[in-house]
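sorry for the late reply, my laptop died twice this morning and i had to redo everyting from scratch. anyway the thing you sent over, i finally got around to it. pasting the sequence first so we're on the same page, its 86 residues, then the predicted structure underneath. double check i copied it right bc i was rushing
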Amino acid sequence: MENNFFKNIEKKTGVNMNEIMELANSLQNANFKDEKTVRQVIKRVSQIANKKVPKELEDQIVKSIVNDGKQLDMGTISKMLNQKKK
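ok and here's the structure:
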């Protein structure tokens, strides 16, 4: 089941599953109350997806996670990648 989840993300985004796993591992101990950390994660997702994240969107994501307490998990990352494809 988990493997299908990652294969679906890979199929939808064109992102290598190994890069997704590396990103997921890096998120495990990340401090998402720290704006700098959140911005680094956003930049990493952007690099992996080969998509530019406009400053406005980056600011919205940071606010949503740091200030509003939303969680950043693989589902959230997947939604971020899919939003940028549109």
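The helical segments are 2-13, 17-27, 35-49, 55-67, 74-85.
thats about all i looked at so far, will dig more tmrw
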